[in-house]
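thread: overnight batch results

M.L. [08:02]
morning all. the overnight job finished for the chain we discussed friday. pasting input first so we're all looking at the same thing
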Amino acid sequence: MAMSNAVWGIDIGQCALKALRCTLDDDEKSIVADAYDYIEYPKILSQPEANREELIRDALEQFLSRNEVRGCKVAMSVPGQAGLSRFFKPPPVDAKLIPDIVKYEAKQQIPFPLEDVVWDFQKIGGTEVDGFTLDAEVGLFAMKREQVFRAIKPFTDAGIELSIVQLAPLCIYNYVSYDLLDGGPNPEEIDPDNPPESLVVLSIGTETTDLVITNGVRIWQRSIPLGGNHFTKQLSRELKMTYVKAEHLKRNARQAEDPKTVFQVMRPVFNDFVTEIQRSLNFFQNIDRQTKIGRLVMIGNTVRLPGLRQYLSKNLGLDVIKVDEFRHLKGGEVKSSPQFHENLLAYAGSYGLCLQALDVANLSTNLLPQEFITNRLIREKKPWAVAAVGAVLLAFSFNYLFHYGSFAKVEPAYANQGVDWRSATSTVDSVQNVSTSFKGEQETLKKTRDHFVAMGEEVVGAGDRKLLWLELYRAINSALPVDPRFAENPTAIRDPMKVPYLDRPDIYIRYIESQYFEDTARWWTPAIQKKWEEVSDQKSEGDAEGEDAGAAPPPVEPGMDPAMDPSMDPSMGGGQPQGEPGAAGGPTGPGWVIEIRGYHFHNSSTNVEGGSGYTYLRNTLIEQLKKGTVRLPKEAAVDGREPAMVEYTMEELGIRFPVVVENNDIEHRFQIKNERYVPPSVAGRNDGSGEDGAGVPRNDAAVVPDDGSNPQRFDAPKYEFVIQFCWQEKRLHERNEIREAAERAKADAEKALEAERQANAGNPEGGN
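M.L. [08:03]
and the structure it wrote out:
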């Protein structure tokens, strides 16, 4: 198997260096151990006369002389008492907010400035519902930066590149959850009120004991300041012997001359062990009352001390799980080795490190400083960066060589047929200078021509421009309906008794206003477009005629009066209903928006022809502004001669898109005072009808009885409106030019059609 897939887990203990190398099997599910090492120090690191740095350095040199670590991921452990572990339950919040909560908790629970520590965290257990984390626990782990650098210094001095730094209790947790608990239960299936049984794990070292309580998901740990060395010190002190002899006696207590005396001497340490462990268990059960303590697991070479396992089991009331193999670890050569089997219990930490390095462990926190990770990434990228730069330089070199021949042919001294580039370039520059001179003269002449054209346009167009507004007013006047009974004299005064107001087809105009737009698309908002669609929709005609007699469609903006509202008055900068400008299909470019406010009385319920209210307005004035024509002079009058009159369409004049922007209800009760009314008596009372001739709404309480020949008021149902349309003026000569061009195009098309018809007549086979 490739070495690049191998990982080393190195545990620097107090009395020995333990190392285990593992890889993933071909199925990437099984862990295979293919190498190990166990190097015992000449002295225990905690002894006063021991040189800790030198002993570790010598052990690493010996390790490197017997093993290859290049290309492997290396993980190391640090003692549990050197770090800090805290566990807390975050509130049910969005999972994305967990890092912010952890950072806040880190500031509260780590008793040092965060810049002075290396820390990491991991969410443990819990479920996630709709992005919210429930019943989860967060483990926060930290270590002072100076202690981390002190721990990894022997590795950096030995040239070993570390990938992971982990606390020893967490290595034990990874081993237990993977090997003894088969990966642990599914966190989402755990009932918080009835969690699975927890194991108590004792990793008994030389100076300290790491106590870990876990059910495979949750974890709690504490470092107890008692270890195997305390038994040795007790024997040395009580039996008055050297440390070396006491250590030998401890390991071979059953073979001593008086085993009973040896165990009697060590009993106080046994009692202290039980007391500390029981105190820790009671504390844990107080903070987590749902936890059920199950069995006891003991690891570490101190466990081989005769009687320790039985003593703790009896006094703690817990059954002991005897660890005599790593169940999920393969590797026959390693597992069958006598030295590995003898020190099996000491390899639990190294095994847990390998599990994390192979990404199969439950906990994956890492206390390796970020600068080490960054430097390694840069180092790994350097070869690729150098290779990329080299490839680019090589490509440039080849490109230069391939194009060198072409470059040589454009050198100034290169000659072909007796002409070199230098002389040819000089000739071209001379010709270019002459060309530039001619172009300058051409631009000057063009500007002069444009100036004269503009002057001619002013002279010729002045007469046209002064007619534009007169033509507009004539067009509006021609679009107004005319009473056929008074066609000969439309301004004649009509007797209301003979021609009732409600039968008159006239449309009365109150005012005509205008506003200029640099771009008429600003006026053509979606609201205006919708009104244009209303007046253009032929279906609406039938709908309107089926309405209640004389009733107009509901106004778009009831109560809105352009004369009072600047936003609808073109003369005051308005004329644009709310909406985004520039709707599709409308006018663009400069032009005028003309607004007309008026009213009509053609609102009788018996008026079938032309309709009433809004319908009558649309069928008369609006329709004429859309499709009507107006007779105008074809040319300006010369020498007093009357010019020929020509019919121009509204569109030819530039009038387009007439819309009703204010559509009011019909005032059915509106009346106009009869100026010829004769009161019943001279002493008749003042009826408060207002100014003479003024139309007033009818007040039934104030009406004086009258007969049909002498009415006091005339019924005049009144419909008021405001319309707008776009006028992009076309001067007289422009209209004539457009019309002449259209006539020529039509004549050419007719000639072409006639020629094709004659050709088909002369060639019967070519006909259809």
